[in-house]
């Protein structure tokens, strides 16, 4: 049990760290792990460990047991290349855990298959799948990018039939393309009933245009709000999208182009250098969407967002390199990632602080501990308490990735970390945390230093690890906790280390 005194010590220490230690603590995340956790590998230099820790906390959801050792063994560039080369199928460890989820297994069927499922089951299964994949997939970059594109093409599950239509959107329109070709993904999302319903395009018809989807397609999905288009361009795109709707009846929930609803008049879009002759059809919008994907402003807009996600900001040199790679590779995503990950992130170049969103934090904690979880209600509820209930952001811009948006979620984060390490979460099992301790560390006084070091991925002599271990030891000594109980000391130490500012930042 974590005492009130320890909690108070943690809050005081965290407040001081926020005032005085942000610059240093932002670099610390962790390495603790457990199938079970093991002592840190000893690299040739601390620089190698620092680089590996940073990359695994930006291009992955933090290191799981053995990940840092493997990254150091293959070299961090080799690790990145292996992640970029992933072809996209779920690993056996993931497949076994999501087997039986109808929202995954039936996603290639007609969407109306899910109409008979309760709203609660649909929301539960949608969230289980994304949590389990993020925690257990070895293709970590793929899962990070799946989250990135899920927010880029955000759909609110609680609007209309969103929860019924989302499984097909996720499994067929989004996930197959997360490291592939952006134009293909953009077209797939545009044809998705989930997207058309969410952004009201089924109401977009000849003579009664609804510009909602056309506007977000340009402002959020492609060229960006400063991309140089005009209101007239939005109107032309909306007219081209008339007739793109969601079928009813026997084909309920499937994409349908209804020519009777389509604006067949000639259209001209100067921004896209596109002239559409009269009497057109579905290919009008497809041509316009392809032009949007290929527009230089789209390359820069996507490159900027990716730089911010992986580097914490968008240095012009890296942004331009990524945008140029996108343009020269016919809208491919992998080439765009290479200058960001290989040239900037792997070299620990111009990288700035980036606070983990609640989902990132929860997944990284589960991975670090080697926890066994089904991604069920105990995890989903905690994410909601932290402000990130999955698939439930109402606006089309997706969950924010700005530090200021999440500073109010620290208390529920701390409660989650302490409860996780104390074994209080249903459906989550954490292996005995004291088991891997070396004989010399199996005492209440020495255990905190060893665990903090492993969790943060730093030497016990590292100033950050040493400071946090000392703070935790002080809290334990001033509390009424049974300090002779190694198991409790270890659980408290692990929980408090996950609460530390050093664990809250992406490397």
What does this molecule look like?
This protein has 507 residues and is mainly α. The protein has 3 domains: 4-74 and 355-504, no CATH class; 181-294, no CATH class; 304-345, no CATH class. The chain is built from 25 helices and 6 strands. A two-stranded antiparallel sheet has the order 1-2. A hairpin with a 4-residue loop joins β3 (267-269) and β4. α4 (67-74) packs across α5 (76-84) and α16 (296-311) crosses α18. It is globular.
Whole-number tally of structural domains: 3
What portion of the residues fall into strands of 2 or more residues? under 5%
In angstroms, what separates the terminal alpha carbons? 29 Å
Main sheet strand line-up = 1-2
Report the uncertain regions: 1-34
Largest sheet: 2 strands, antiparallel
Structural class of the secondary elements? mainly alpha
The general outline is: globular
- Measured as a percent range, the helix fraction is 40-55%
Cα-atom Rg, whole angstroms? Answer: 24 Å
What is the average of the pLDDT values?
Answer: 89
Number of strands: 6
What's the helix count? Answer: 25
